[in-house]
Give the backbone structure.
Amino acid sequence: MAQAAGLSGPDFGGGVALASIPADGVLLGHVGDTPVLLALVDGQPHAVSASCTHYGGPLAEGLRMGDEIRCPWHHACFSLRSGKAVKAPAFAPLSCWNVEVREGRAYVTGEQAATATAVVADSGAQTQRRVLIVGGGAAGFACAQRLRERGFAGSITMLSADSAPPVDRPNLSKDYLAGSAPAEWMPLQPPAFYVEQAIDLHLGSEAVGLDIRARRVTTRNGDIHHYDALLLATGAEASRIPLPRFDLPNVFTLRTLADADALIRGVADAHAIAVIGSGFIGMEAASALRARGLAVHVVTPEALPLERILGTQLAQHLLDLHQRHDVQFHLQTQAEHFDGHDLRLANGDTLTVDALLVGIGVRPRIQLADDAGLRIQNGIVVDDRLRTAVAGVYAAGDVARYPHAGGMARVEHWVHAQRQGQCVADNLLGDDRAFTDPPFFWTHHYGNDLRYLGHGSGWNRLEVDGDPAANDCLARYYRDDVLVAAATLGRDRELLALQARL
Ligand SMILES: Cc1cc2nc3c(=O)[nH]c(=O)nc-3n(C[C@H](O)[C@H](O)[C@H](O)COP(=O)(O)OP(=O)(O)OC[C@H]3O[C@@H](n4cnc5c(N)ncnc54)[C@H](O)[C@@H]3O)c2cc1C
Ligand code: FES
């Protein structure tokens, strides 16, 4: 039978031999026009849809681990039994399909109706009925979503200093900035979600006071919120250049949807922009701004962009890639003076530009916690359960400094922050779960994705296998002969397979 375009494997409606389903993998096929995965779990066939509910990643190219499948693109994890999204960045479940076994063959007969969320006993939450989340970003959203998904029946209040509900922040420097992602893609959920889930979301509501004895948070506009459990998920803020005139209206940073919209408006009639800094956000923004047709200059003190993190070979590859797209680099120098039009560099060059984008890193937003007397050490210090030393107060995401690999780490990644938020929710429900996931992030440049797993700070040996220019490469980072991180171009499954080691 002819297959619809883009479909692979057998038509499961016509049945497949049970023996053809790999015991420790998945079989890709389809039912009608829908790609479906068949897997044997404890000897029984289960069928789930084959496209990741995050960004449609091809799950058949991911990695099966036990009764779960991990997406090759951003490592979301789904149950093969129930389709449930077990780990971020996906939140919606895969659809499940009925399977009948007759004479050694499995027939996928039809899609099951979505089941309502099961309300589970939330033992820990019986005494913690009011959860207050300060932060409307990755960690805060994931915590609230997981609490409701697991049937938490107490109140959830979320305070966000942002003017927009939680958004797909990584996209701000990618397709959204390039102009290829419409505004309706950006919210993690529509406004109705917060109403339906009884998540009391307060936007433009900056928490300015935390009284840990009275279990009370005060906002700048004078509201007072009492809590039984508190999650501090205040993230980080973009650093600025502490020089005069680097605060002119055509100098931008990029953290929030409002920042991205201001930048997009600000470059609408622009011809040239200088990106200050060659970190991930600066480099992604350079790629997106080239897609808008701007002449882009990157000014950086580094010899090669991201060399300290990625090593020379991958950093050189990124430089070449951007140069092939006509980005002009000003390496080993820095911005010294800006008059709104002319940008003078320390090496004596002057660039004439219409705008600046400052991407020189971020600082954790610790003020609230610091003023309240919580322990701060380049972030809010938490234990492996993401608890601060104060009972009932947790921290997660970019702001949290947590135990990792025998030391302490603070990680600034999307999936990591979401998973920490999920871990806090699980612990609020009494799971007593340590957070052990290795950090993961991805970065996107001109259609190429680089993925990175682990925490490579202080690496001192690097092995690169393959050719970055051919988008086929695995870099392994070692610290004193211990593998601490890996990065890949085009080798998604190999990176997933390294999770257990990292
Ligand atoms: C442009 C951009 C692109 C990125 N791309 C990637 C990527 O490709 N891959 C990747 O892994 N990571 C990426 N990141 C990083 C990732 O977005 C962050 O690591 C992640 O958002 C951190 O989540 P968080 O919940 O800790 O903080 P955030 O998502 O920043 O959320 C913090 C929230 O706290 C609120 N807040 C702060 N202080 C207060 C207060 N006092 N009162 C009330 N609310 C407060 C803020 O308004 C915000 O809502 C990117 C970041 C940016 C900015
Ligand atoms: S597309 Fe699957 S995790 Fe993003």
Notes: DSSP finds ten helices and 36 strands in the chain.
